[in-house]
Design brief:
The chain is an alpha+beta fold. It has nine helices and 20 strands. The longest helix has 26 residues. Keywords: Membrane, Transmembrane, Transmembrane helix.
């Protein structure tokens, strides 16, 4: 013991130097361990998108995951070259080439890693510049030396939204007035998914006239840009002036129409003749009405009024509901040569559907009209039938 004291006394400088080296080395190791185990200090966050709609992501999540994988595999004494291959190509690495002991170690390492969680705490979407986001790291496995921690970042660098007039959305809505002047209705279509299938209220729909000005309020969803790139300004209610409804001056080939219906009625009466009994037909009047294969979609469920809510259809699909197709109905009375004076004549209608109006002319000459397909007997009186036609139609002659 005395010799040891003498050695210390004679070699104070040397001893103190060694102690200093030991302390410095220990401190360096502690500092290294602290940094290497402090996962949260390695985290980098990236912000992208538009101000008010920005998103945050962990920029280096993959490299941090590789770092932790390497550390855990090293802890379990996996060979360096194997670790490099696993970290570089985890999906294609051939684990079967390893010993069963190493396979077990790797499986254990993966289970250890599953006990760690790196995530955003709180909001990480719909961000604006100046917001704060926090990333947390949690290690619930006492066998791992990784430290819990959290780090807060200030949102910056999000792009500024571009202001766009709400007219841009309105211009994506196709509007068409259909039917007869004074009894018109609106058809709406669009290729904008935020407008398709929405219901837009149209005041006096079914009773519209050329020159009427209607207000259309588009749904709020159509003006919300989830990316934040566009900020719509202005009203979502727009004015539209009605035009294009059919009136008495719209159709100029009425004589062509009655010539066609007279011809088919001549065939009809010829077919009815038996022995000496002859039949003659007399023209009563001619109506034009809107034609739509899916007529029920225009009406409310509880009555025969045209619905004030108009559904926006997909403009990329062909739809007869948005085309101004027309029907003509010619009414005739048919008399028999053998009829008594007090016998009622037979009342019939010639109906031709799906007609188009081009340059003031209905394409009646394009249609094949037969007594079997286009002529029907009226179950009601002519006056009753006319009242029904006048609800949505127009008398031409």
């Amino acid at each position: 013991m005395e010799k040891f004291k003498t050695f210390i006394t004679q070699n104070k400088k040397l001893v103190y130097g060694v102690i200093a080296i030991i302390i410095i080395a220990a401190g360096a190791k502690i500092g290294y361990d602290y940094h290497s185990n402090n996962i949260i200090s390695r985290i980098e966050v990236k912000f992208y998108g538009y101000n008010g709609h920005g998103d945050a992501v962990i920029r280096n999540a993959e490299s941090v995951n590789k770092y932790m994988t390497r550390r855990v595999l090293q802890k379990d004494h996996i060979k360096k070259d194997v670790i490099n291959k696993i970290v570089s190509h985890p999906d294609t690495f051939d684990y079967s080439m390893l010993s069963s002991e190493d396979q077990y170690k790797i499986q254990s390492s993966i289970e250890d890693l599953s006990s760690t969680r790196l995530e955003f705490k709180g909001k990480s979407t719909e961000l604006k510049n100046g917001d704060k986001v926090t990333v947390t790291f949690k290690n619930s496995n006492s066998e791992l030396s990784f430290r819990d921690g959290k780090k807060t970042f200030t949102v910056k660098g999000l792009k500024k939204s571009t202001k766009v007039s709400s007219n841009k959305i309105f211009n994506q809505l196709k509007i068409k007035a259909l039917g007869i002047n004074g009894k018109g209705q609106i058809a709406l279509s669009s290729k904008n998914s935020d407008l398709i299938n929405s219901n837009i209220k149209v005041k006096n729909n079914g009773h519209l006239s050329n020159g009427d000005v209607i207000s259309l309020t588009l749904p709020k969803a159509a003006f919300k840009d989830s990316s934040g790139k566009h900020q719509y300004t202005g009203s979502r209610t727009f004015k539209y002036k009605i035009s294009g409804l059919i009136d008495s001056k719209s159709i100029t080939n009425v004589d062509d129409i009655t010539d066609a219906t007279d011809t088919v009625m001549s065939d009809y009466t010829d077919d009815k003749q038996f022995a000496d009994e002859k039949y003659t037909s007399k023209f009563v009047n001619l109506y034009v009405t809107p034609y739509n294969e899916n007529e029920e979609e225009y009406y409310d469920d509880d009555d025969n009024e045209v619905s004030s809510k108009v559904e926006v259809t997909d403009a990329s699909e062909n739809s007869t509901s948005s085309s101004n197709k027309l029907s003509i109905v010619a009414i005739y009375s048919v008399n028999s040569s053998d009829a008594d004076d007090d016998d009622e004549p037979e009342n019939v209608a010639v109906e031709v559907n799906n007609l188009s109006l081009n340059d003031g002319k209905l394409n009646i000459k394009d249609k094949k009209i037969t007594s079997d397909d286009n002529v029907s007997t009226l179950s009601d009186s002519i006056k009753t039938y006319e009242r029904n036609l006048e609800v949505s139609g127009l008398k031409l002659k």
